Amino acid sequence: MPENFQNFLKYLKQDDTQAWDNLIITTGVIINHWADEKRLEILWCADEKGILSNNKYIRLVIQELRIVLKQEAIEDFSGLKRIILDISNKILTEGFYCFMNLIFDKDKKAWNILSDVVKIKIHRFIRMEGCRQTDSFEEIFQETLIVFSEKLANGSLKFENSYKLKSFLLRIARLKLYEKFRINKRQNESIWIDEMNYHLPDIGSYQEVFEDREYTAYLFKMLEKKERLILYYYFFEQKQLKEIAGKLNIGEENCRIIKYRAIRKLREVVTQNKKMEILN
């Protein structure tokens, strides 16, 4: 056993104030680092009296550590660290169940703590997914808590730890975000097709293809989004390929290829439909 660690243990057993102060600081660092690695929330912890603050949580660990130090021989710092984490895990597991009971009982303080952490996690997740609108974040955050509350009321939710709970809440947020993307996509496509139907300019040789507005909408549904945009800008807004390429952040030659591919698709569909008309 290293002499400096042996002396440190001796001071602890003698209840040396400075040694215990150093151990309290060290314990806090060890626990916080461990919780970050495991993605656990120390704040999501309670006892029969209510929510445990971070300081009270550390004090509980230290209380049990005092008892262990009197009963067990510790060889080195890694052994001390292992004991600290064992005690911390035990307290956090029991405390999390108490915290969830407070959530189930609609304890205001517990819900506020839960909401604050979840709000940060969802905001980070939404930004990573590329969504920047504040109203989207607030809506998804509120809907996530509503779904969680409903499932909690059914009594079907059980979590081993705060990591499992956060994962569950983020899954709800992910589903809500993707649902919002799908709705927005359908709305945007509907608006775009409607605008296209009521603003058909004279496009020369392509007028025959696009003269029927409903048929136009039908044809454009056959294309990919980028193909639709390029044809819309080119034929309906009379923009040059260079300008369209700039709008879509692609190369001009790539834009030309996509335009050609889209027109070929439309010609194939029109030709096939004409054959069907002849057969009928």
Structural description of this entry:
The protein has 280 residues and is mostly helical. It has 3 domains: 104 residues, Rna Polymerase Sigma Factor, Chain: A (Orthogonal Bundle), CATH 1.10.1740; 73 residues, no CATH class; 81 residues, Arc Repressor Mutant, subunit A, CATH 1.10.10. It is 78% helix and 1% strand. The protein is built from 12 helices and 2 strands; from the N terminus they run H-H-E-E-H-H-H-H-H-H-H-H-H-H. A two-stranded antiparallel ribbon has the order 1-2. A hairpin with a 2-residue loop joins strand 1 and strand 2. The radius of gyration is 32 Å and the shape is elongated. The C terminus is likely disordered.
Tally of individual helices: 12
CATH T-level fold name of the largest domain: Rna Polymerase Sigma Factor, Chain: A
Q: Would you state the CATH class of the largest domain?
A: Mainly Alpha
The side-by-side strand order for the widest beta sheet comes to 1-2
Secondary-structure content class: mainly alpha
Mean pLDDT, as a whole number? 80
CATH architecture grouping of the largest domain:
Orthogonal Bundle
Q: Give the helix level as a range of percent.
A: over 70%
Unreliable spans: 189-211, 275-280
Q: What would you report as the Rg, rounded to the nearest angstrom?
A: 32 Å
> Can you tell me the number of structural domains?
3
* Secondary-structure element pattern, one letter each: HHEEHHHHHHHHHH
Shape: elongated
Oligomer: single chain
Largest sheet: 2 strands, antiparallel
Q: Which range does the strand content fall in? A: under 5%
Could you give the count of β-strands?
A: 2
The end-to-end span amounts to 95 Å
